[in-house]
């Protein structure tokens, strides 16, 4: 077993990378950890747990189900099979973890969660396995095998959700292509009925039926899934990659069994993909998104926050946006109702930040939602989010651009964040908020709003 010691207050410099940058810390304590220079919601700060080797591409985080303060981390290692790992972080004292690599040579591991039996489960690209971990050894026992995977798959990572109270597994089957253009002259996309969420029935005692059913189809890539206490299942969609900067929008979907959500034919509420013009009638009957998320923002993590530790986030829905374009690289939050759904309204805004490193801090630009195809005809259909990290763009000499992936609520209420391209594990907690300048970065900027107009459909 490989053993690494972390002293969180020490600044760890990274191996040089085109994507990576070093998080600088200051002399302010952020709930026991050194504060990094990222603007966050008032009354919160972001601390550094770990940056640099042995981390390569940390993806998902799981607080230990039986040992408060300890964490499991998946690290995909890169987009090459056989380089992934699972790490175990053992909290020794405030700001001090021991770091163990407990599994290695994995096939791009991503999701990690606690199953209905209280055990820890990890998703590789080709399977889901259970961890049997002790200080002397770790055993990985496959429970779901034969997941579709090949080297050419555009979306090879496995994400999953344990349904409550049944224990059934919902497993993401990402589209192997962006828009299924290989079939665009055919009667339909050959992947139409296989891309989406599989359901594997729980048999009890840590076993699942290997014969699955398709729970929902037409979902291009479901890398963010959450179930509210009320039973509502949400999916944040990584939508198609049009060349336009403003389309298509990502989606927040209520996932229901047997529904078809539109990929690759439809996007937004009422727009059809021009490449599939001949099948635009499908966009009249597909299940519409509950609300939209900014285009190309790439939601990769989602969870409900119920702790009292950060009062401003209590009972909110949190989503990490990993995208490299102007509306990515941040964490957002939504107020929710008793069904776990954000309230809808007639208009809402999102915020654009610089996509390249800048030398001077500025407020993000406020942008009004104006999706191609318009809104639905049945009333308000857009939700307003809150910026948890309003300034996480690259600021020269201060911080790199954030790339949040997995987010998880620790036993003490802190939000633990995996930043894969900066090789970092971060921690959002209550504390003294960092500000770039005297400007209040947590209030809506007053820049002139602009409307996005598209002629895609």
The tally of beta strands, per DSSP, is 35
- CATH class wording: Mainly Beta
Estimate the helix proportion, in percent.
under 10%
What overall form do the CA principal axes indicate?
globular
Global Rg: 21 Å
Strand content: 35-45%
Name the poorly predicted regions.
1-19, 438-457
Distance between the termini: 56 Å
Helix-and-strand structural type: mainly beta
Tally of domains: 1
CATH arch. level architecture: 6 Propeller
Q: Largest sheet, if any? A: 5 strands, antiparallel
CATH fold field value? Neuraminidase
Return the average pLDDT rounded to an integer.
90
Which superfamily, in CATH terms, is the homologous superfamily?
TolB, C-terminal domain
Question: Helix and strand layout, with pairings?
Answer:
Blueprint: E1 2-7, E2 25-30, E3 33-36, E4 44-51, E5 58-63, E6 71-75, E7 84-93, E8 96-106, E9 112-114, E10 120-123, E11 128-133, E12 138-144, E13 160-162, E14 169-173, E15 196-200, E16 202-204, E17 207-208, E18 213-217, E19 224-227, E20 233-237, E21 250-254, E22 259-260, E23 266-267, E24 271-272, E25 291-293, E26 299-305, E27 316-321, E28 330-334, E29 349-352, E30 365-368, E31 386-387, E32 404-409, E33 415-419, E34 424-430, E35 450-451
Parallel strand pairs: 18-22, 30-35
Antiparallel strand pairs: 1-8, 2-3, 4-34, 5-6, 6-7, 7-8, 9-10, 10-11, 11-12, 13-14, 14-15, 15-18, 16-17, 19-20, 20-21, 21-25, 23-24, 26-27, 27-28, 28-31, 29-30, 32-33, 33-34
């Amino acid at each position: 077993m490989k053993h690494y010691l972390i002293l969180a207050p020490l600044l760890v410099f990274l191996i040089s990378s085109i994507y990576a940058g070093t998080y600088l810390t200051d002399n302010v304590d952020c709930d026991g950890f050194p504060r990094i220079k990222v603007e966050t919601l008032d009354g919160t700060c972001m601390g550094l747990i770990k940056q640099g080797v042995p981390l390569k591409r940390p993806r998902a985080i799981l607080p230990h189900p039986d040992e408060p303060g300890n964490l499991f981390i998946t690290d995909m290692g890169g987009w090459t099979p056989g380089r992934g790992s699972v790490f175990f972080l053992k909290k020794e004292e405030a700001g001090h973890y021991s770091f163990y690599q407990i599994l290695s040579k994995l096939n791009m591991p991503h999701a990690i969660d606690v199953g209905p039996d209280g055990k820890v489960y990890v998703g590789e690209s080709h399977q889901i396995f259970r961890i049997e971990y002790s200080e002397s050894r770790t055993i990985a026992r496959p429970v779901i095998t034969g997941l579709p995977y090949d080297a050419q798959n555009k979306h090879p990572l496995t994400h999953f959700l344990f349904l409550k109270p049944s224990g059934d597994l919902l497993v993401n089957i990402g589209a192997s292509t962006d828009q299924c253009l290989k079939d665009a002259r055919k009667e339909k996309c050959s992947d139409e009925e296989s891309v989406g969420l599989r359901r594997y029935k729980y048999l009890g005692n840590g076993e699942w039926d290997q014969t699955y059913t398709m729970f929902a189809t037409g979902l291009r890539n479901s890398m963010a899934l959450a179930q509210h206490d009320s039973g509502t299942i949400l999916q944040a969609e990584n939508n198609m990659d049009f060349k336009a900067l403003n389309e298509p929008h990502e989606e927040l979907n209520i996932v229901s069994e047997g529904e078809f959500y539109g990929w690759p034919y439809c996007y937004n509420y009422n727009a059809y993909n021009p490449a599939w013009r001949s099948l635009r009638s499908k966009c009249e009957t597909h299940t519409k998104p509950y609300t939209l998320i900014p285009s190309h923002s790439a939601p990769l993590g989602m969870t409900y926050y119920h702790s009292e530790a950060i009062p401003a986030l209590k009972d909110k829905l949190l989503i990490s946006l990993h995208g490299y374009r102007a509306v990515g690289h941040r964490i957002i939050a939504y107020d929710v109702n008793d069904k776990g759904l954000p309230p809808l309204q007639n208009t809402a805004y999102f915020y654009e930040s610089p996509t390249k490193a800048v030398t001077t801090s500025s407020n993000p630009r406020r942008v009004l939602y104006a999706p191609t195809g318009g809104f639905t005809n049945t009333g308000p259909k857009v939700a307003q989010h809150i910026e948890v990290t309003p300034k996480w763009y690259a600021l020269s000499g201060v911080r790199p651009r954030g790339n949040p992936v997995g987010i998880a609520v620790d036993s003490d209420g802190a939000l633990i964040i995996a930043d894969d391209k900066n090789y970092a594990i971060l921690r959002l907690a209550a504390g003294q908020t960092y500000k770039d300048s005297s400007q209040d970065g947590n209030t809506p900027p007053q820049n002139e709003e602009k409307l996005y107009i598209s002629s895609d459909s």
